Amino acid sequence: MAGMPVNIGWSEIALRLGLTVIVGLLIGYNRTEHGKAAGLRTTLLVCLAAAVAMIQVNLLLPTAGRAANSFIMNDLMRLPLGILTGVGFIGGGAILRRDNIVVGVTTAATLWYVTVIGLCLGGGQIALGIAATVLGLAALWLLQWFESRLRRERRATLSIEWEGAGLSEHAIRNRLEAAGLRIADTRLTLSASGARRELLFDILEFSLPNDSTVPPVCQTLAGEPGVIRLTWLRP
After folding, report:
1. pLDDT of amino acid 1
2. Residue 96 forms part of a structural domain
3. Residues of the domain holding 77
4. Contact (CB, 8 A) for 206 and 151
């Protein structure tokens, strides 16, 4: 509560709300730009809700506390704490799991973050709110640019179907591992006659996030005698 003025006028309220709108629009634009479900309107509304809650706390400050002969005490900080709890539920709904991929974590964190910024601006901590906004925008824009240039572990599926004695499962595994691909799981399927075999590999590789190239080892395997089909897929 330190730094929060006890009495505020409409000019101060307008300043806080105006800054909150600017912050909500800036961060919300980033979410909309990347096609996130919680975009411009959602981010702005969450930020404004937090700011309005803190402004309301500020307006109630002069009546806070209790008289010497009263059993009633206003715990005004329950209101912003309730806002943070509610945003936690919204953020939890933004996180989705699709197979082995979890999406929406950044959106959930952004909603929680703009809530804290809104609480700062609504409570009158303008400098802290602006500093938090600058740091948040740097994390969303600059760090995304940096992350896009970092190699990371990605999952892929390699399916290879062949017939004849030219290749073996052991030889294929050795080639993949020699190429720097880590095999997480393998499934072998045989045809009714046993002459045709299909291997399905779950692969872990280190590559750039937007890299869509097929590893050279796959092209080499596809050219081996007896190979009927080879498919490389990333989720």
Report:
1. 43
2. yes
3. 10-66+73-147
4. yes
